[in-house]
Structures are given as structure tokens and as C-alpha cells.
Description:
- The protein is an alpha+beta fold and 617 residues long.
- 37% of the residues lie in helices and 12% in strands.
- The strands form 7 sheets. The protein has a 4-stranded antiparallel sheet.
- Helix 2 (21-29) packs parallel to helix 3.
- The mean pLDDT is 90.
Amino acid sequence: MAPAFTPPPATVSEALSLLPGDALHPLMRLLPIDRPLPTRKADMVAAIERHLSDNSLRELWNRLDETQQLAVSEALSTPHSIFHPHAFKAKYGKLPFGFDPDASRTKAPVLRLFLYASHRYETPTIIPPDLAQRLRAFVPPPPETELAADDDLPDTVQQPRFRYLHRGQKQEFDPVALTRRDMERAAHHDLFAVLRLIDGGRVAVSAKTRRPSAAASRSIAAVLEGGDFLEPAAGETPEREQEIGPIRAFAWPCLMQAARLAELRGSRLALTKSGRAALAAPAAETLRRLWKRWLGTTLLDEFSRVEAIKGQSRGRGRRSLTAASGRRPVVADALAECPVGRWVRFDDFSEFMQAASFRFDVTRDPWHLYLSEPEYGSLGYNGSHDWHILQGRYLLCLLLEYAATLGLIDVAYTDPADARPDFTHMWGADDLAYLSRYDGLQYFRLNPLGAYCLGLAEVYEPSVPPARAALTVYPGLWLQAAAALSPDERLMLETYADEAEDGVWRLDGDKALSAIENGHDPEAFRQFLAARDDQPLPETVDGFLRDAERGARALRMQGTALLVECADAKIAARLATDARTSRLCQRAGERQLVVRTASEKAFRKAARALGYGMPPG
């Protein structure tokens, strides 16, 4: 039988009564109580309470140092006047003096007259309602929580050289280059590429888990713009005890199923009616739908992708996990606080979430999760279930594998190995180069597509890279840069043109067709060129873009079909003209018929009525 719930103290008197006598003595010494001091507990409580209810309360407030005053102010700003130490440390980088729950009872800080335990033997974290009411009369509100952001990325980040330090040894750091991926335009391309791949029957998933097979992930990675995030370079096969595996290539089939753009038919995904409609719909609208559907899906818990943490798939460990559909909206709300177009360090974002009360839990009982071995490796031990271990890894996965894949954020990352050694103190971590494949995410940037998907913008307006280098646009479809291009500018040019030599580009018809076909807006490219060349766009270049736009939209995919070969021309002619089958097929040669995939079942039935069968394959 569960123990009865005991409400927290409603008054200072109740809160003081929870303390043992030896904890009340040092509190009395902080106050101008007449000597000799009371010895009976009831008298001690009454004496302390008296000094917290008269004019001496403001004097006590003035005796607090700045950090302690901020602690009281932060607690008063919450609905139930609760002090959250993790949030406070995330916001201010330190805890108030004397807040250590193991601090000596004989030297109580003045802060202990403001913060009390909600139950006996617990850490003092609440201000009783009667005291909170008196304090709100003069205590100022805390400063707003701010999220640091930068216009530019650093070239490198500092990575610790040593996982473990000997006594007296100082940590050293090595610069590690960042890999930057701008995902807004990439997501437009990837969306249509994956839809077509599914339509071609090339994406197999597990009937039980709905996760893509290894072969399907490889097929998807091959059509993604720039490949997957952490694919090894050509000819490079790094030796790893931990296999990183697919990230974007894993996410796309899951996202498609969650949004009901694709469904399992046999062992492979096939497009639904909505998925087929998405082939002709604006990419931004479909990407927004994918994100919104993902927020509430039960198809997959992103935390299960942190495979080094065991115990998630069965028993108490599985039952103790919170619903992912309750975590994602919290992260989405926090993302909406990020400035559009500015780079945010992941660690700053994680601390901002704690400080600004964007909190969620991954598990209700970390004792059932573990590294390597359930007993010694349990995450229930102190320091093994902190925010950066559980919530932090969940955030890394959701941002890199799903938000970035859908193009909401641009990202900058390193290899995950040794990128976040904050778990190396845990039992069972010796053989792990990283806790999650997402550990290398260092920075991200909310872009206009992300603002649209998060509801910050009513209309999607594609981003145009800020002009850094002037361009000369020639009538012969040549472009010449006057200075080095920024990564954004280079990516935009690579979408429509080939680089003939350093700083010289030529517009390419195939690239332009492919770009527009995959959802890129040619008007954004026109604006890009116009912002970098003082002269009007040459008519030949404008005509090139108009022709490319017209050509890219000249054909529209209405569905897939089967090519049926008949045994002879006589059978083909009969099937193409008989009233029962003619409406279901079209002649495509002497012995060939074309049958829409959606009409296959009806065609088979009608053909059987005429005495013809069609074996599978």
C-alpha cells in the first residue's frame, strides 16, 4: 500500500516544526532573541517565527549576499515558491552559499531562515506561503533568463585531451574542427528524394519496430544532399568499437510513417494517398506537417537511440520511462525561444532550458537503467542520472536526428568520440568512446523554415545568405565572385551552378532543374544574385531561370504503374478492348499493357474473368 501523501508546510511554524532541536539552535543565533535562548522546541519555533513576521524580515533580507537574494527571488517567481537548485545553477553558474544539504547545522546561513524543507530530512527548497506573501511586498523579481547566441560560428571547439586525470595533473585541450551543415535547403531536396525512393519500393522496414533495415538506410543515405551527417569519407573506414550508424537516413522512414505519408505494405514502405499528394505539394508545408505529427507520435522514443544506456526495452526500465510525446512539446517550446538566424551553443541551450523552467523527465526511476551491468552500472547512483546524462542526450538526439533532418535547424558538429566526456566517471563507461552518436553536436541555428514549422512565422520565406562577396553575372550564364564566398553563399551557388575554376561559376541546366524539382525556390536565387550584383539580371540569365522553372514543373507524377507483358499480341489486344479490362489498362506496345498500381487488384479480377492469370513477380 502506498504511503499517504503529506502536504508541504503551509506556514513558517509548520516548516520549523519539521526541524530537530539541534537545527533550530543555530537559526536562533542568527536572530536578536533575548538570552537565555529557549530550550523547549515549541518556544524555539515561536521565537524564530516572531522575527520572521515583523519589521526585522527586511533586515534579514539585507543580510543575504547577492546570490542568496537571487535564490529567494527565483523561488518567489515560481507558482509554489519552490527553489530549483539545478535551474539556479544553470542560470547563474553557482549555488548560494550554505545550500549544501550536508552543511553543518551549527553554522546555519541566513538563507535557512527563508528556505525550508517540504518534508522532514529533505533539502530546504520551499518558502512557506505565509512567509512568501510577506516577502513579495519588497523582494524584486529575478532577472530574465537569457539565451546566448552568436552571428558567426567559431572554426574549432576545444576538446579535452585526457579522459582521466592523475592527482595533480591538469587537463589540456585540443582544437577540433567543426563540420557545418545548413539544413534548410537540404531538407527540401531530401523530402522529395525519400518520397520517390519509397514510391519505388526501395525502403524496407521491420514489421515489428517499423525501423528501416540496414539496406534501406544505405539507399536513403545515397540520395540525401551531402550524405548522412557522420558518413566516413570516401576510402576511409575508421575502426570503431561503437558503430555510429545512420542518423538522417534512420529518421526519414520514421518521420514518413508518423505523418502517415507512408505505410507498411508487405516488408516495404509505400506512399499513402497523402504521401502521393506530398509529391506535388510545397515542401515547407509537408515539412511542417512532418514536424507537428512527430511531436505527438508513439512510433519511437528518441531516447531508445541512446543505445549505450540499457534496460529501456523491457521490464521496470521500460515502464519507468516517461512518454516521449510529453517531452517533445517542451523542447519545441524552448526551440521557439531561440533567435532566428543566430548560432546557439548546445550546452547554453541545455542550461537555458533548465533555468527557464523548460523541464521534462526521461524516466521516473533511473535505478532500472544502466551501463553495461544492471547492478554496478545503474543510473540510480548520484551523478549518473543528472540532466546532462538523461535529458541532455535526449535533446541531442531530437535536435540532430529529427529537427535537423527536417531542416528546422542548421547544425555544426564534431565526431562524437570524446566530444562529451561528462559520463566517463560512471561505472561501465570505460569502453565507451561516446554515450550517444549525437554527442558531437556543438551548435545549432534556428532558420526561417524552423520558425515556420514552430509557428513563429505565418508564411515561409526562404533564407537568402547575407551578401559577403560581390558577384558579376554575365549574359553567357557565367558568374564571377570578387572575394571568398561564405559557406552559405557557396552552398547556394552549388545548387544551381558548377565551379569552373576558383571563384568562377557557370549556371547548369541539370542542376537548376533538379533544384527546382526538389523544392528550391528560383525566386530566392534571383534575389541572391540581385543582392550581389549592382547591374540588373541579364535577360539570358532570367530566361534561363524561367525555362528551368517551367521545365521542372512540366511533368507531374500521378502515381505508379505496372508494366504487364502478355503471352502474345492477341491477348494484349483483347484485354485492351474488352469492356471489363479496357478501363483498367492501356496498350504500351505490341504485347505490353500498363496498369496503375492502385488498379492491380481490379485488373487481376477482371483478367481472370476472361480466363487469364498473372503470377506474381
